[in-house]
Design goal:
hpI Integrase, Chain A, 8 helices
Length: 175
């Protein structure tokens, strides 16, 4: 019998840290990072976006064949809509670009922001879910937006609510 791999808590940036990282990115890297945080996408989900996945009228983004081969819808941040439309106009002619320039862009911005956490592209996704939860969003809705099959996968984000290890406040704290 094999030992189970230890589950690590996700790295979650504060809203100010996210803002600081995003402000240090430009061009395509800024759009991708904006989708990671603003829509809760995984890196490859953001990189694989196609024109027909974007619904600017409904402010929706469709993720097709996400993790586990599942499709889901999530929000399209209003502040990214215009930038995405401009980007789409610029890339109407199909072109490929060397991915070497893109790898590590978010990590460089994290370091430039003076953040010592081992944050990565995926940290923006974790931050998306955590910040929604902190604002009182229903965990089932977050589960759907994140594309998690099991609620227990989404429950990992409750660790930041400072309500004890199970996301519950002690009754003694209300005396």
């Amino acid at each position: 019998m094999r030992a189970r791999a230890k589950r690590r808590l996700p790295v979650v940036l504060t809203e100010e840290e996210v803002r600081s990282v995003l402000q240090r990115l430009e061009g395509s890297e800024a759009l991708v990072a904006g989708l990671l945080y603003g829509s809760g996408l995984r890196l490859m989900e953001a990189l694989r976006r196609r024109v027909h996945d974007l619904d600017f009228n409904r402010q929706e983004l469709t993720v097709r064949h996400g993790k586990g081969g599942k499709d889901r819808r999530t929000m399209l941040p209003k502040q990214l809509s215009k930038k995405l439309q401009i980007h789409l106009e610029e890339v109407r002619t199909v072109h490929k670009r060397d991915l070497i320039d893109g790898w590590g862009a978010v990590r460089c911005a994290v370091l430039a922001a003076g953040i010592s956490k081992p944050a990565s592209c995926h940290s923006l996704r974790h931050s998306f879910a955590t910040h929604l939860l902190e604002r009182g969003q229903d965990i089932r809705t977050i589960q759907e937006l994140m594309g998690h099959k099991e609620l227990k996968t989404t429950m990992i984000y409750t660790h930041v609510l400072n309500r004890g290890p199970l996301g519950v406040a002690s009754p003694a704290d209300f005396l």
